[in-house]
């Protein structure tokens, strides 16, 4: 299949869009968040049972009424992803799922 995507110099390139992060593997280090310029993912709190409690905000020290066990990254704006792959390159746990642009349905 021919790629409809190209770099500035005309080289063929296929974006790999972030579609999911495995919450059981993610350690919530935030490296992916720091390199993402598109605000695709955010840190969420998780309780002892593995249930996602909600987004963690830097503004407050909310520990979700003592329920917070750990934090993980969650893809909450996947439509903003441009497929650059920076997040995958910095992830120490390889917990992200990326799908090639030609495999994504609109």
TrEMBL record:
Highest taxon of the lineage: Bacteria
Entry keyword annotation includes Transport: yes
Domain 4Fe-4S ferredoxin-type: 17-46, 71-101
Keyword annotations: 4Fe-4S, Electron transport, Iron, Iron-sulfur, Metal-binding, Nitrogen fixation, Repeat, Transport
InterPro entries: 4Fe4S_Fe-S-bd, 4Fe4S_Fe_S_CS, FdIII_4_nif, Fe-S_Ferredoxin
Keyword flag Protease: no
Cofactor(s) this protein requires: [4Fe-4S] cluster
Single GO term (MF): metal ion binding
Pfam families recorded: Fer4_7 (PF12838)
Entries under NCBIfam families matching the protein: fdxN_nitrog
UniProt-listed PANTHER family: ADENYLYLSULFATE REDUCTASE, BETA SUBUNIT, FERREDOXIN III
Known function: Ferredoxins are iron-sulfur proteins that transfer electrons in a wide variety of metabolic reactions.
Name of the protein: Ferredoxin III
Taxon lineage: Bacteria, Pseudomonadati, Pseudomonadota, Alphaproteobacteria, Hyphomicrobiales
Gene behind the chain: fdxB
